[in-house]
């Protein structure tokens, strides 16, 4: 790519770059940011990787801002008109949302708030739009984080209102991702029919199309998973917010909803120990037991029993998962021994 990481802190000093180069910068920045979030920093520098991530995200935000030229100014190169400008504004909002999350990680909530608020307006408007993949989940995530910040300010009414907005975004977000999946499937069907009619011709083009379809399907699947994960967190934060507001019944209801969604994820092939927002099986079981006690006190014995059965299932699933992990480790160790991994003879 022709772009280079030279954009300084002021967006005014950033020159617009080609639209394709901005896309490359987006892809590389998000990939590097994900790697940095996985780093465990030493106790003496607990936020070192977060600060590195922040600089990358700021650069992306400023470059996208330079490409999203204000009305009346020349269109950025390679833009092709308003579509490129809107895309650049969307990328700027993505960077702002990620920056807001980064600042919250480093306990700088006051600086995170305006970034998240600005991002939400763009992301909500772009949800479901063409070339705005990922807007749905990011909008919910940003609203979730704004709800947390309001709770930290002890503004429970604002926190509940923001989380309610996140809740209301879930169904439209889910439908938007499903619509993209349906559209992608329809395009794939047309392309496959065309390839069958011209069998043997343009093999290279067919391979390229197949690779594009696979990559697009992977993006849609990732968007769907992100929407579901963000909604689960909305449920979790609503349980906390209602608890802070003194509404024990609503808090218990949202706690149960959260735990059911976590359980469904494990039952659907996920792992209790995997993913950035995964849950600890033993802590989950303790929470289920506590919730069972609450429902017993309310006389809702069927709900209490379901909680206990679920706790038992999660612990058994966790033990089975641990046994599989140990078995895999033994197999790896055995194959590393002399004669252990070769063919018999």
UniProtKB/TrEMBL annotation:
Transmembrane segments: none annotated. It comes from the Eukaryota. It is found in: Cytoplasm, Cytoskeleton. Pfam families: KBP_C. This is KIF-binding protein. Residues 66-85, 324-345 are annotated as: Disordered. Belongs to the KIF-binding protein family. Keywords: Cytoplasm, Cytoskeleton. The lineage of its organism: Eukaryota, Haptista, Haptophyta, Prymnesiophyceae, Isochrysidales. PANTHER family: KIF-BINDING PROTEIN, KIF1-BINDING PROTEIN. InterPro entries: KBP. One of its GO terms (cellular component) is cytoskeleton.
């Amino acid at each position: 790519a022709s772009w280079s990481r030279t954009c300084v802190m002021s967006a005014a000093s950033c020159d617009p770059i080609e639209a394709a180069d901005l896309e490359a910068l987006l892809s590389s920045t998000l990939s590097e940011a994900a790697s940095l979030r996985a780093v465990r920093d030493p106790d003496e520098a607990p936020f070192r990787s977060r600060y590195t991530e922040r600089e990358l995200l700021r650069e992306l935000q400023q470059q996208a801002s330079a490409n999203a030229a204000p009305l009346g100014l020349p269109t950025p190169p390679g833009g092709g008109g308003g579509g490129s400008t809107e895309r650049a504004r969307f990328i700027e909002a993505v960077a702002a949302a990620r920056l807001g999350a980064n600042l919250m990680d480093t306990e700088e909530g006051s600086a995170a708030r305006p970034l998240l608020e600005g991002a939400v307006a763009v992301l909500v408007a772009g949800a479901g739009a063409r070339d705005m993949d990922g807007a749905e989940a990011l909008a919910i995530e940003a609203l979730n984080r704004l709800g947390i910040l309001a709770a930290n300010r002890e503004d429970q009414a604002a926190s509940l209102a923001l989380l309610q907005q996140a809740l209301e975004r879930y169904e439209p977000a889910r439908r938007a991702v499903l619509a993209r999946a349906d559209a992608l499937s329809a395009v794939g069907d047309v392309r496959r029919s065309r390839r069958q009619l011209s069998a043997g011709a343009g093999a290279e083009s067919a391979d390229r199309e197949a690779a594009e379809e696979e990559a697009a399907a992977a993006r849609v699947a990732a968007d769907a998973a992100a929407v579901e994960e963000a909604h689960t967190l909305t449920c979790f934060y609503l349980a906390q917010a209602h608890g802070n507001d003194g509404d024990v019944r609503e808090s218990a209801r949202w706690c149960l909803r959260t735990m059911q969604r976590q359980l469904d994820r494990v039952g659907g092939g996920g792992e209790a120990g995997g993913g950035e927002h995964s849950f600890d099986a033993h802590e989950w079981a303790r929470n289920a037991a506590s919730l069972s006690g609450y429902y017993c006190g309310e006389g809702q014995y069927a709900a209490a029993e379901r909680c206990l059965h679920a706790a038992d299932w999660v612990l058994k699933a966790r033990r089975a998962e641990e046994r599989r992990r140990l078995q895999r480790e033994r197999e790896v160790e055995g194959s590393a021994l002399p004669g252990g991994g070769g063919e018999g003879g």
